Amino acid sequence: MKSRNYYITLLIAFLVLPDYIQAELDERQLLLQREYAHVLRWDNVEGSPQWVAGELPQYHFQYGLHFVKLKPGQSTTVRLPQAAFLRLYHPSQLLSPDDVTVSHSNGSGLFASLPVAVSADASSLITQVDRSRNALLQVTRPTTHQEEIVLALFISRLESVGEIAPYRNVIPLTRSTVQLRRSDHAAGQTYWEWLPEN
Question: Is the distance from CB of 83 to CB of 157 less than 8 angstroms?
Fold first, then answer.
């Protein structure tokens, strides 16, 4: 009996509550966000939680980045979020795809080889896994090489634009206005100066 009364009360509440408290997508905000491209950021792998195992990245004062030194046969493993790229970079050395082998795993312990692409200036190698899931990527220096390689590892991140069109239904006041913009918003907002009166 109690559960029946509960369901009846719940049904009445849904029927009686006004429409304005129901959540709705902001169509104008979505349309405006399509106009702006997401900003691509590259985050240098410095340690945990992106770094998982193997050779730990060490800070290099000259370049202001964390680098991994890989001797032949050594590897490092990083966690790659879904839809992200892994970039291997050296600021003063040209890289080729045979400098390292990159393999990926879903966490099972089995690694499969991945192809790498060379950037236009040949200072970076870039690779990506299946965009729909997180993965572990292992970067290994092949034993066919004699010398070590030093690489900075970067993980891509898309930074979305903040609220583009806030307060579209503002009621203007008769005071002077000021435009203020937060660093994470694309557009400024109008505020009215309102000083205390005696």
Answer: no
Residue 160's Cα: distance from chain center in Å?
9
Beta-carbon contacts of 185 under 8 Å, excluding residues fewer than 6 positions away, are 162, 163, 164, 166
- The single-letter DSSP state of residue 38 is P
Q: Higher confidence at residue 21 or residue 93?
A: 93
The pLDDT tens digits for 41-86 are: 899 999 889 899 999 999 999 889 999 999 999 999 999 988 889 9
Supply the pLDDT for residue 76.
Answer: 94
DSSP secondary structure string for all residues of 138-188: EEE--TT-SS-EEEEEEEEEEEPP--SS--TTPPP-SS-EEEE--TT-SS-
Q: What is the pLDDT of residue 159?
A: 78
- 8 A C-beta contact, residue 28 and residue 165: yes
